[in-house]
Automatic annotation (TrEMBL), chains A, B:
Organism (species): Odocoileus virginianus (White-tailed deer)
Domain of life: Eukaryota
Entry protein name: Protein phosphatase 1M isoform X1
Membrane-spanning parts: none
InterPro entries: PP2C, PPM-type-like_dom_sf, PPM-type_phosphatase-like_dom
Signal sequence residues: none
All copies of domain PPM-type phosphatase, residue ranges: 100-451
Length: 461, 461
């Protein structure tokens, strides 16, 4: 992506073109639930959920079907918020083949050895909006993008440190193979591959949705184990935490219009055209009214962490670029998240104002070194879509995990049982440990990944 | 500042105008050392420093002269790196007057009460480059900017929470005076005032330097006590840390081309014109050579935290936007810091490429709640320019502080003695606790601010 591309794509000189009406050239993305839920009862068709949340079924893989690392999974569909469950999940083994550098004359890559070189594991949650299509495409696609991106750099992961040149050979005698000063590590290549994979997947979704005349977007939260490390990549408002006996550690942070206020305001500052004169980029404590004109009111602009006062002008009365607080915060009055995949066609209702330039598909990646961690018997990673975290805090989830696991050591399916129990805790039922009134009507999907005896000792070759 | 202003200022349509030759309309900013060093010996003129670092004098205020909170100060001039000491310091009492809203009809501010309303204290270090002028102007000016910015919002600091409207009155009956959901605190107003003050000071420096035909820039590190809190605002590579008996806490982080790589690369991505075809915004492990053409080498772009490989094109052989590692890292081959004041005229040698669009004057602000901290006898804040931190780690400074203070309880001048001792520790003398070879030839300036019995109980009214 270049600056020119950005300008051509989002800053047309003349009046903005109307959004293209969908001209389906391909069949729509079929709705489905994750493959690993097969046989677990309840149809994969539209929700038949009742409005009474406690009547909604919690689904998890059938007993006997095991997920990577014996991870647990459970999900519940929303209370008719939409017809389909807009959450999607995927997991599996990630087989990275090693490609070796071919004949030098033609500078081409030849797959001299297509054997599996590295093995990783992959768990992913996608929370869709504007329809389930983007989340389904992401669940179908992101792991392939990731495999491809990792294979493109796997040669650089052979040595203890990535070499300056991918061929691993010095191109002139005085040149060291590694550039010590920068301290570039193998994990930096994996982080780079995750970043590239999210972007590639975003492009695929854009093409596929346009071809099938569909719309929508989704968040993406990925955990991937590779060479003794667990990578957590997040774009959106899902969350992963590490729960240990005496530690609760966030492994991701949420990207919403509020948490990314400065980045979003700055883009509107640089390209005011993106707001088409309909929005103000400034933040005020509430939407301003005619009465506020000429008054000095609290405000924040893109470069400010603190607040100041400004005299209200007429342009300040426009609808704010970011409006509302907490769960109600919206970007351009439209979207509750500021990173994710898809949404290429999304515009503000009844306008030509596009959301996409304000959205990032690039994830933030955190790395957990499993060798250093020395995971104990009941150490787990809990990954869940926002429906869980709206109702339960990290500490509440940790208490539930620590309470559940010791009493269920013998059950091979206990991590799915734990995931189901976490979801039931959001449904306001009698045995729920949370306060009355805190009930999630959203889709909720949960992975529980046990860390003990996993991922250490570099499962490569 | 608007986007239009930025484009007009930095993106001229035609060929770039040559830098205007200085046409002095005012006399040059006179060189001086801080007022509070008067009488402490050594002339205030050019450095007569010897090349042997241990022969250079360490200066601190004369015994009997006390700084706010009985803080200590010491400085040493560089070993002929430049003729003048480019560091500057300032400290003092900050008296904030309360202005009350005047007659409503003309909507003007009248100072009904010019009595002091709030009292704070202020300590600041400025590390100049390209001449001492910007640092001297900052030392002369920033506290006035800060007072002015605080007085502009002081009415909002009267209540426990800043009101939506500065007059403190609801403008329509249904409107609550405070906007509870946003949780805006008094300290957010102070942070906003610090941010505005740095920007105002930057503009003053730009005007003054242009008028006097001088050039240069400086970093700025400010500590300010107000209403029971200590605010630390930093733009540049100076550093402040809190040292307690069993805690070392950084109160600032450094802003250099390396720490702000993504912001700087992103600006070059948005406005490639800023690089005038002379630089590449991409980061490589080292500067590329002709031999690298066509090879796949490690690189990072603005949206990447991790690294990936790319095939080298001709444009990648240009000089990198950010080059070098650690202390050698330079922005556009020119500047070692990415935030600060001044540098309005600074261009890359022999080009018209301006540094200013890549520099931020806005500081990052951290807040220390003195009431919650309950400072003990030997708790201090150590503020110093980069000359100290190049040679001593936070932990080494903390060890020196903890070793020095208990044995010197009776000396009223002990915090200046401590500051002098810290500076001597960077000079490679015999009694230095640091390894041989780690010697600072830079200017070094140090404040040591004791926290015990200070700043609590809100010294207002």
């Amino acid at each position: 992506m270049s600056a020119d591309w950005f300008r051509r794509r989002f800053l047309p000189r003349g009046p903005l073109p109307a959004p293209r009406p969908p001209r389906p050239r391909a069949s729509p993305v079929p709705y489905r639930r994750p493959r690993f839920l097969r046989g677990s009862g309840s149809s994969s068709g539209p929700a038949d959920a009742s409005r009474r949340p406690d009547a909604r079924p919690v689904r998890s893989p059938v007993r006997g079907r095991s997920l990577p690392w014996n991870a647990g999974y459970a999900e519940i569909i929303n209370a008719e918020k939409s017809e389909f469950n807009e959450d999607q999940a995927a997991c599996g083994k990630l087989c990275i083949r090693r490609c070796e550098f071919g004949v030098e004359e033609d500078q081409e890559w030849l797959t001299l050895c297509s054997e599996e070189f590295l093995t990783g594991h992959y768990w992913a949650l996608f929370d869709g909006h504007g329809g389930p299509a983007a989340a389904i495409l992401a669940a179908n696609t992101l792991h392939s993008c990731l495999r491809r991106q990792l294979e493109a750099v796997v040669e650089g992961m052979v040595a203890t440190q990535p070499p300056m040149h991918l061929s691993g050979r010095c191109i002139c005698p005085s040149d060291p193979q590694f550039v010590e000063e920068k301290g570039i590590r193998t994990e930096d290549l994996v982080i780079g591959a995750l970043e590239s994979a999210f972007q590639e997947c975003d492009e695929v979704i854009g093409r596929e949705l346009e071809a099938s005349g569909q719309v929508g977007g989704c968040t993406a939260l990925v955990a991937m184990s590779l060479k003794g490390k667990l990578y957590v990549a997040n774009a959106g408002d899902s969350r992963a935490i590490l729960v240990r006996r005496d530690e609760v550690r966030p492994l991701s942070s949420e990207f919403t219009p509020e948490t990314e206020r400065q980045r979003i305001q700055q883009l509107a500052f640089i390209y005011p055209e993106l707001l088409a004169g309909e929005f103000t980029r400034l933040e005020f404590p509430r939407r301003l009214k005619g009465d506020d004109l000429g008054q000095k009111v609290l405000f924040r602009d893109h470069h400010m962490s603190g607040w100041s006062y400004k005299c209200v002008e007429k342009s300040d009365l426009k609808y704010p670029l970011i409006h509302g607080q907490g769960r109600q915060a919206r970007l351009l009055g439209t979207l509750a998240v500021s990173r994710g995949l898809g949404d290429h066609q999304l515009r503000v209702l009844d306008t030509n104002i596009q959301l996409k330039p304000f959205l990032l598909s690039v994830p933030q990646v955190t790395v957990l070194n499993m060798d250093q961690l020395e995971p104990q018997e009941e150490d787990v990673v809990v990954m869940a879509t926002d429906g869980l975290w709206d109702v339960l805090s990290n500490e509440q989830v940790a208490r539930l995990v620590r309470h559940f696991l010791p009493g269920n050591r013998e059950d091979p399916h206990r991590f799915s049982e734990l995931a189901k129990m976490l979801i039931r805790s959001t449904q306001g039922t009698d045995d729920s440990p949370i306060q009355e009134g805190q009930v999630s009507y959203d889709d909720v999907s949960v992975f529980v990944i046990p860390l003990h005896h996993q991922g250490q000792g570099h499962s490569s070759h």
